[in-house]
Automatic annotation (TrEMBL):
Manner of cofactor binding, per the entry note: Binds 1 FAD per subunit.
Additional free-text comment from the UniProt record: The active site is a redox-active disulfide bond.
Enzyme class label: oxidoreductase
Binding site for FAD: K56, T149, G150, S151, D318
Annotated NAD(+) binding sites: G186, G187, G188, Y189, I190, G191, M192, E193, E209, G277
Enzyme active site: H450
Stretches assigned to the FAD/NAD(P)-binding domain: 11-333
Disulfide bonds: C47-C52
Protein name: Dihydrolipoyl dehydrogenase
Domain of life, per lineage: Bacteria
Amino acid sequence: MVVGEVAVETDVVVIGGGPGGYAAAIRLGQLGKSVVLVEKDQLGGVCLHRGCIPSKALIHSAGEYHKLASLEKLGIQLPKGDVAFQMSTWQTWKESVVHQLKNGVDQLCQANGVTVVKGAATFLSNDRIGVETGGDFETYKFRQAIIATGSRPFTPPFVKPDGVHILDSTDALNLQEVPQSLGIIGGGYIGMELGMAFAKLGAKVTIVEAADKVLPQTAASLTQEVWKQAKKLGMTIRTGTKVESVSVEQAHVSLDILTHLNTREQVSVEKVLVTIGRVPNTGEIGLSQAGVQTDERGYIHVDSTGRTNVAHIYAIGDVTPGPALAHRASKQGVVAAEVIAGLPSSFDTPYVPYVIFTEPQIAGVGLTKEEAEQQGYRVKTAAFPYRANGRALATDEKEGFAEVIVDEQSHLLLGLHLVGADASNLIGEGVLALELAARVEDLALTIHPHPTLSEVWLEAAEAVLGHAIHIVNKAKVLQ
């Protein structure tokens, strides 16, 4: 290793080139700052290469494949013969999507004057980092820094992924064949998303979740339809059940489990996917040498501008407490960049939407009914079912509903939640409504195009007010 004697000076160094890091770097470049963006792997980070994009590509392909069985009732007659899903061909498609997006990030960084350095960064002090780049070691001196190193899958002590029999989410998305049977440890959003996708492709899926329900961080009223669909897909779901040990035996994996009845059983599957959670990547970047503090779990606490306890060093994304969401990281990155450039910017919104790409999709923003009541609101709610929506029926996507949560006194919208087809896109209207402090009347008075799924918002809002057109109004008119 050759140690550089002279430090390269830059206004800002950004450590990590994921959705938060590259967004921050590009925004800084737009604002006239000199920027060095350090990424040890590839621009786009885990989200682009091993997470968000590849998983959604698999979920989409699995969904299209699964639909083939129901096309005949829509008048589509397929040729006789077996229809097969080729995982290896899908891998080529996935890589083409990732490659196109990665090239786009490369070009945007270049166009905005961002210097990209490939290597592993470590703080040497509170104004210098060292970067290992192959056999060399380069030093950079900065005025401000942004930490955007993301997170990695959490692996419990009783199981160690080997990439062949015991998988993490990255391994699962690199499979060349669909396993005959797949056990999933953890019934959170990653486990349920990938589990349902592999079930649609023909795998026999068993999910083991320690909590008393799958998607334990999501309101029970929003997960019931997902549970029903999982059963229809032939998935086995073991809730209130813990995995005590995992062993590989003759090309199969055995799970020793403790059930909710306090009995011990053994489950045998071809492969096991571990999706218990994620941990921040803060342990190997020399934070103590920069004086940056973390909590006992390794998270960096920041203020609304992204500042750490060291005023000129910022942190964004999965290394900070809060939901590990790419869009949250991107927004934090833009805010930190603007604050560094002297603009009045702040991450001060509670309205961070979430999307779960299960079958059906779940999406929401703001408070649930239970959360609103716990905060002291007098709540009025209404839901409109997809089965009463013309577009949903015409496209055979009738499972689900839209729900609005309203403050009964002020009529202010407090939360909007969806279970159903295209919820991931429809939730954008809900986010905008909350950001604009809209009342339920604002939503009800807005003309929505027909026939579209977006009309579920209109009808849910009208149902709260007591004058929905396409369902029977059961509640009294909201005064």
